[in-house]
Amino acid sequence: MSTSAELFTIGQLADRCGVPTRTVRFWSDAGLVSPAGRSAAGYRLYDAEAVVRLELVQTLRELGLGLDLVHEVLTRAATLSEVAAAQVAALDAEIRTLRLRRALLTTVANRETTIMETVRMHKLARLSAQERQQIIDDFVQSVVEGVDPGAPAMGIAQAMRTMPAELPDDPAPEQVDAWIELGELVADEDFRRRVRTMAVAGGTQYEFSPDYQTVAEHTGRALAQGVAPGSAEGKAILDQIIPPGTPTAERVRILEQLETFTDARVERYWQLMAIINGRPPQPPAVPGFEWLIAALRADTGNGRASEGTPASSG
Q1: All domains in the chain, ordered by first residue
Q2: What's the pLDDT tens digit per position in 207-234?
Q3: Which of 29, 125, 228, 295 could serve as 238's disulfide partner, Cβ 3.0–4.6 Å?
Q4: How far apart are alpha carbons 165 and 232 in whole angstroms?
Q5: Residue 280 exposed, middle or buried by CB count within 10 Å (0-12, 13-18, 19+)
């Protein structure tokens, strides 16, 4: 670095620092690099201090600082540490945005989506944490309105509100996809009505309910072996879940209970929540409960169609 009284023209200064001449001129016009004087012909001349200053401006610009922040550093209106800290925060926000954008584009690339669906997915994905939470809160509030605060369903409703404070800084495509699907699910009026029906019915006390693990064990075996629900072998498996001596009226009540609290979309809700919160979703329980419902229908002679499909899972 020269410490003599040597002066440089804009072109010489640009060559010395490896910056385009037009950039040096622009920064000079902006007051970031001031000339030490002018030649007899009126051209701007710069000294060794300008070289140091230009190198600092170049470094700060390459780090992404705007001209206004560079000016604050040069004029000591803000310390370099303060500006650097602010820039780190801004970069963190930008990185989160870019990662979310990348994940959303991955989702779009992997799905057969229309333009309008892509627009809707983009709007859902870019919501703030507070806005995402508000969507879930509104959904839960709509399905439990008027339900006894002490009812068991209210505990489940509270669990349904559980959202992460934010999507991860580097969300996996499946997390973005899960949030988009969840946002679309809770906006569906038919789904809202179905969950409300379950919430209202949740205040009823039942003397007997099939044990979840028992159902999973025996229906899992039935499904794996391809046992038909209405077959003799299916009846034998049903008897291992619901005692053979259970009166028909009680079996009908159990069937109605299962049909009320069994819905594939509700189970999907819990699976999506798990994915968003970074937890592995529970294996689907729906096929097993579907099998059990079909077996009970056959056993009780009740062949009406169920409004619900697979079992919900918390």
Answers
A1: 10-65 (1.10.1660.10), 94-201 (no CATH), 212-300 (no CATH)
A2: 556 788 889 999 999 999 999 999 999 9
A3: 295
A4: 51
A5: exposed
